[in-house]
Amino acid sequence: MSTSRPVWAADAPERVLVVDGAPTSVRTWIARTRKQRNTGLLGTDGLDGALWIKACNWVHTFGMRYALDLVYVGRHGRVVAVTTAPPRRLCLPRLNAHATIEMPTGTAAQLNIVRGTIIDTTPRI
């Protein structure tokens, strides 16, 4: 079975990504618990949206079959770094990040997400 959202997100409320105050069409799941953060996107074949990982300043892509854009977010929602991570890699920590957003490769560029961008989420309507 192919899945394009976190396996733990079946009952999680969907949100959408907000970039510089403008809601986007990118649905977003928020990993809040330790179990959700540890599981992340494992078991997915791709991603249709974004995963916002709270209390996280570094990630790895071991067990992943696809590359990801990583958006590191500071305390007040300001982007501190954007990078692309290939599968099966350990990514460098960003000490000033308080969350990491994982999204399909190329999504950050499409949404003009760069260092200094303000990012948030809002409930999906």
UniProtKB/TrEMBL annotation:
Pfam families with a match to the protein in the record: DUF192 (PF02643)
Name recorded for this polypeptide: DUF192 domain-containing protein
